[in-house]
Amino acid sequence: MTQPTASPTLDTLFKRNLARQPDALALVDPPNKQRITGQPPKRLTFAQADRMISSLAAHFIESGLPSNSVIAVQLPNTIEFALTVLAAYRAGLVVAVLPLLWRQSELTMALNRTAARAIVTSGKVDGVIYSDIAMNAAAEAFSIRHVCGFGNDLPEGMASLDNAIFRESPTTRAVIQDGRKAALISFDVTADGFRPVPRAHLGLIAGGLSMSLESDVPQGATILSAFSPMSFAGLASSLAIWLLSGGTLVLHHPFDDEVLEQQINEQSCDTLIAPAQLALRLDELDLAARMPSLRNVIGLWRTPEQVGSSAGWSAQQATLTDVYLFGEAGLFGARRIAEDGSPALIKPGPHGAPRDLPGSSIAGDILVTPRGTLGLRGPMVPVAAYAPPPPPSDSLIASPPRDYVDTDYAARLDRVTGAVHITAPPSGVMAVGGYRFLAQDLQEWARRLGQGALLTALPDRISGHRLAGRALDNARARDALTELGLNPLMVEAFRDRSNAA
C-alpha cells in the first residue's frame, strides 16, 4: 500500500531550503539588537540555523513537553523568534503568539484559554523586563510547567535558552510532518470579546503564498521584515514568505527609520514587508534614491478602511502591494498597477494570486454579507473559530453552517465599478498601536485616571492609532493604569504623551 504524501509544514519548507543551499545566508538580526535585548546581533546560514533549531527542539522534548501541546511565545522581531517557532514545530508543538504590548492580565487569559504548557520570552525588550511579566503571568496559569527565556539576568526558575541553543543533543522525536496539523494560535479581539484563533500549517502557508504570488517575490529574495510577528499576518508575511522564497530574512524590530534604511542598503534587500503607512512615508522621502535595491514593497494595512483614501505610490523601480488585514480572520492583497499609483479596485467573488493573471490559483473569496459587512472565505480563513453561536430554535432541523467569516467591517458595492468599498471598522473595537482593544476597556481606563483626565486613541501614520492621555495628577494616572495591569510600555507611552501636553 502506498502511503499518501503529507502536505508540507513550515519545518518541511525549511528543510527543503537546507538541503538545497546549506551554506546560504538565512537569517540576519537587527544591527541595534544590543540596545533592544542586550544581546549582540547574529547572522546564520541555513546549516547554522538548523543546528540551533534542533538544539531548541531537543530542549523542549527533554523538558517533558508532549506532542501537540501548546507553547506560548512572546519575543521581539529577532532571530530567536524564528528559531523558537521552527524548533517548536520540529518538536511537534503548537505555537501561541503573545503580542509584546499585552497586559499581564491578557497574557494570563491567553495562557489559561489555550492550556499552554510552556512560555518563551526575552529577558528585556526596549528596557522593559519581560521575564518578570512572564513569570507573574505563568504563576496565575495552572497549565504552565516551563518558563524559558533568552537574555541575561533571567529570574530564578526561568530556564536559559541561550545555553540550550548551543548545546548539541541527540534527543529527537518522531513527528508526522502534515500541513493539516495545528500550527498556530493567535488572538483576536472582536465585539464579542477575546477570541483564540487556531490555524493549521496549510493556513499559514496559504497566507504567505497569497502575498508572495501577488507581489511577485522572486526565488532567493533578500527580504526585510519590519512588521511585528505576533499575529497570523506577522508570521505569514515573514516566516512563510521567507521559506517559500528560499532566500534571506533580514529582521527589523519596529521602528527605527535610520536603522531600517541602513539594513536595506547594507543587505541589498529587494523586498520590504512593513506597515503600509510606513511604506508610503518612505515613498514620500524618495525611496528610489535612498534605497535603490528595493523592487517589491508589501504594505500591510491594519486599518483596511483607509486603503481607498491613501496616497498614490510614486516609486518607479519598486511596486507596492496593499495587504488588507482583518484582525486574525484573514487577509488579501492587491498590487498597485495604475499609472497614478492608486490602490487597485477590489471586486467581490473569488480572487487569484496574482489577481491579474487569468487562471491563477484561487487564494480566497470576498463577499458582502446581508448585514452590509465584509465576509471572507478560503484556505487561510478559520471559519470554525469565528462561527456564531447557534440561534435558539425549536426546530429539529439544524441550520446550515456558515462557510465564511464575517469580519464586521462595514462594506458596500460601488454601483458604477462594482468594486467593494470598506467604509468603517467593527463597532466597539479600537485598534491602538496595531493591537485591538474593546472600547469599553478604554473607557474603564479613562475612568480610573481620575477627574479631569483624558485618554484617547489618536490617528497615527504608522500604527493606525496611538494611545494619548492627559491627567491633572500624572503619578496617580500611571498608578491607576498599572493597577489595571497595563503593559509598562503603554504606561510609559501615557507618561510621554501627558508630559508633552
From TrEMBL:
Residues 14-298 form the AMP-dependent synthetase/ligase domain. GO terms for biological process: fatty acid metabolic process. Keywords: Ligase. Signal peptide: none annotated. It holds the Pfam family AMP-binding. GO terms for molecular function: medium-chain fatty acid-CoA ligase activity. It comes from the Bacteria. Transmembrane segments: none annotated. Belongs to the ATP-dependent AMP-binding enzyme family. This is AMP-dependent synthetase. It comes from Bradyrhizobium lablabi. The lineage of its organism: Bacteria, Pseudomonadati, Pseudomonadota, Alphaproteobacteria, Hyphomicrobiales.
